[in-house]
Amino acid sequence: LESLGVLAATIDGAWVSHSTALQTRSLWVPETVLNELHLSRPRGSRAARHARVKGHQFVIDSADLGHVDGVPTSSIPRAWREAAAQMTVRELVQLGDFLVRVPRPAFEGRSEPYTTIDQLTEMVRKYPVVPGAKRAAVAAALVRVGSDSPPESDWRLAIWGAGLPEPELQVALRPGDRYSPTLDLGYRKWKIGMQYEGAVHRSAERHSTDLWRDREFATEGWTVLGIGHRDRAEGFFGLIRQLKRLVPRL
Question: What's the mean per-residue pLDDT of the chain?
């Protein structure tokens, strides 16, 4: 990435683009694009040619360019839009969910999301001829604030794909209470909660907290479904079947 920045600085009008623009900011991207390097130039210019670098020619509003260590790069929402040429709808939603999630200042050192759903939607409207337009439009409509990890995004998309009602995200047992236990997803109306138990939940301290959380919800009559790696690997098939039995037909 550092060498790409040097290259961008030597080519007139060039900027680091696509998923590479996100990586220069040390932001999460799907593993499928980790080794891709993208450099863009204005429409009408000659595409950048260099080993391993994918060159592009685009029209871009200067307002949608930023800088990282002095190197021109696509802004975060513009980079998400460009990445629609590289990623599936599922990956774009995962990335979008990551970019719009509300951070935890005590742990992340920031208080604002990297972008917003409105800004992503605006990029779809603003750049209809940039490759991946249809995927970007579908993904922008599916991005939500509250999915804190790619597995949570995948579970939510599986629920959507199964035709089930859209769940609430980051479900607090007692809304408005800062000390209330919270589940990843759920249906408050039917008292059904769901929690993805990833690697972070394997420590003894976190396990103890999880037991307390589940007990608090159970005391109030909630059914809590624990979700793990195996469920994700099988496409959540068994969980969807179970959820369909629990959620009343509308």
Answer: 91
Q: Encode pLDDT of 100-126 as tens digits.
A: 999 988 888 899 999 999 999 999 999
Give the residue from 37, 26, 31, 33 showing the smallest Cα distance to 4: 37
Whole-Å CA distances, 233 to 4, 79, 154, 240:
35, 29, 11, 13
Which residues are within 8 A (CB) of 138 and not within 5 positions of it... i.e. 6 or more apart?
89
For residue 18, pLDDT over 90 is answered with yes
Other C-beta atoms lying within 10 Å of the C-beta of residue 92: 25
- For residue 234, report the phi and psi dihedrals to the nearest 5 degrees: -95, 15
The helix/strand count (H/E) of the chain reads as 11, 9
Tell me what the mean pLDDT of segment 211-224 comes to. Answer: 95
- Where residue 187 falls (left for φ over 0; alpha for ψ -120 to 50; beta otherwise) is beta
